[in-house]
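Support request, priority: normal
Reporter: lab tech (M.K.)
Component: structure prediction queue

Hi team, I submitted a job for Peptide chain release factor 1-like, mitochondrial from Diaphorina citri yesterday, and the status page still shows it as pending. I've pasted the exact input below so you can check whether something in the sequence is tripping the parser. The sequence length should be 206 residues. Please let me know if I need to resubmit or if it's stuck on your end.
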Amino acid sequence: YSPGGIRQATLNVSGADCFSYLKYEGGVHRVQRVPKTEKSGRLHTSTVSVAVLPQPKDIEVHLDEKDLKVETKRATGAGGQHVNTTDSAVRMTHIPTGISVESQEDRSQIKNRANALAKLKRLIYEIQFEEQENRCKIKRKIQVGRKTRNEKIRTYNYPQDRITDHRIQRTVYNVAEFMSGGAMLHELISDIRQHDYQFRIDQLLS
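Reply from support: The job had stalled in the queue. We restarted it manually and it finished. Here are the results:
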């Protein structure tokens, strides 16, 4: 919070199918109003950018044996005669990504194989986590945009008591009721969902 009002806010919403509904609120919202401090009655326009993102999921790394290339060799370095005379070192490659790791810390090939698999999973997890983070950043950037008024998805005009959703070109009235989250808001979101569904169908058929 700043002297000029709330500059930025983050909230967490949970519930059944909440993201499938609220994701359509992502974008630039334009507010038109006459502030109480405006003596000449001049209309002020401001914008707020909203990003709606799903909660990142825990990533489980499952590696199929057919995707692994396992090679054994004699370990090098300190460790005595046993290390140098048995194929205890393990090199494991994940074929789809080309990522390779080695393990020769233990005298047992079985333990080195387990260590190599753990290393490989950790590396792939880091890659998948980074990809997930990048996808979230891209989604947020698309929704927030450049915060310009021509990117608006919805306008709230208080003097006219009007709300216009520019994506489906629909206008409703009674801002107070709409902002209370009642039936009017749910009906508009349902119309937007239907519009989006029809758009996707048309894209598939075209």
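The chain has a mean pLDDT of 82. The longest helix spans residues 109-144. Let us know if anything else looks off. Ticket resolved.
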